């Protein structure tokens, strides 16, 4: 366990967003939102989805930038993601040298591929040890497992030196960001829970299909039944906003939808 762990209390708060797209009468249908702080500066769209939290489009992944006294990045995109992050930081008056840590929600290439270049200035890299161990598996292991998830691990560049983060760790940002181990999509997939904002970062543990929030991709998951079952760990949280890695924000019925998914999986 790294030195990042904190037990700081997380006071209550809220998130503000406005709906983008048409409404749907189905109470479990998708409600994807954009921030009312969205502006376009030059060719870079500035998206502060919640005060101090930015959605940043990197290569093949939306990362979430936590801008406090120092910077924390959730997920790192594919290799080549340094340039778009650098452009975004300049637009908001920040600099890559302020990046203290990169939290990887799981070990697929579109989430940790850009780590080495982004962490070159000394940022700490956090990842669950089960995924760090899986990156760079041998071709023989891939052939034995015969899942696309293992194939993705095989082609994922190793992030280099990293700090293990495990279930229950609390990262000292947003008043306390708790690590929740949700294995299945990958063995080390995690979600990150910020009670202050009632905000849940899910990486690829959840996705949106046919306008509905649902389980991780069966196509790319290591263990799809486990990925479905892992949602039960999220259903007990008082979630208002879900930040997805490829689908933006989901809000309003978040808690109810998580409960429905957990019930269906059981």
Short account of what is shown:
The chain contains eight helices and 19 strands. The protein is of the alpha+beta class. The radius of gyration is 17 Å and the shape is globular.
pLDDT below 50 for ≥5 consecutive residues: which ranges?
A: 1-42
Helix content: 10-25%
N-end to C-end Cα span = 32 Å
Write out the CATH superfamily name. Answer: Ribonuclease Z/Hydroxyacylglutathione hydrolase-like
CATH class type: Alpha Beta
Number of domains: 1
Give the radius of gyration. 17 Å
Structural class: alpha+beta
N-to-C series of helices and strands: EEEEEEEEHEHHEHHHEEEEEEEHEEH
Q: What's the total count of β strands? A: 19
Q: What percent strand?
A: 25-35%
Might you state the CATH topology name? Metallo-beta-lactamase, Chain A
Q: Give the number of helices.
A: 8
Features:
19 strands; eight-stranded mixed beta sheet; Metallo-beta-lactamase, Chain A; seven-stranded mixed beta sheet; 8 helices; 28% strand; alpha+beta; disordered N terminus; 266 residues
